[in-house]
């Protein structure tokens, strides 16, 4: 039976770290792993992200994560359409006079509502650790807090069930396995 696992959370909350641990876990040997989509787009297409993101960036990233939902195999993704929509909401707040941002945000929220059954297990990673510079993510802690707020807003507006993942790496893995495998 296909299992879809999507992580959501602001930058620097440990999503990719946990995904990498799951890649080594025998319980997830049959899973594909969707990772580094944003970083790969930045490298390959020269996209601007975070505070410098554009509506075109947000459309491309949303489509990439939306396409992941069509996979026919079980998979774990270190981000999803919820994250993209949160960054779109941030762009909307920063570009209040640009109606393209508002229209894109509404389109993404509607799309998430229509796709929410396909999201599978959604695991939300709250802010717990100091940001670590990886050369791509924003190091602005206030910005991280805003993105976290927007992610929570998207989860609520779209009525998406989710599980909070926090604590040590071992605690986080235990939470995920417990939910996915009913352990």
Q: Can you count the helices?
A: 7
**Low-confidence runs of at least 5 consecutive residues:** none
Please count the beta strands (DSSP E, at least 2 residues each).
Answer: 5
Mean pLDDT: 90
Overall geometric form: globular
Explain this structure to me?
With 183 residues, the protein is of the alpha/beta class. It has helices spanning 15-24, 37-45, 55-68, 81-94, 99-115, 141-157, 169-181, and strands at 4-8, 32-34, 75-77, 121-124, 163-164. Strands 2-3-1-4-5 form a five-stranded parallel β-sheet, with helices on one face. Strand 4 (121-124), helix 6 and strand 5 (163-164) form a beta-alpha-beta unit. It is globular and about 50 Å long. The two termini are 17 Å apart.
Properties at a glance:
9% strand; alpha/beta; five-stranded parallel beta sheet; 5 strands; 183 residues
Q: What is the topological layout?
A:
Layout: E1 4-8, H1 15-24, E2 32-34, H2 37-45, H3 55-68, E3 75-77, H4 81-94, H5 99-115, E4 121-124, H6 141-157, E5 163-164, H7 169-181
Parallel strand pairs: 1-3, 1-4, 2-3, 4-5
Helix pairs in contact: 3-4, 3-5, 4-5, 4-6
Provide a compact summary of the structure.
The chain has 183 residues and is of the alpha/beta class. 51% of the residues lie in helices and 9% in strands.
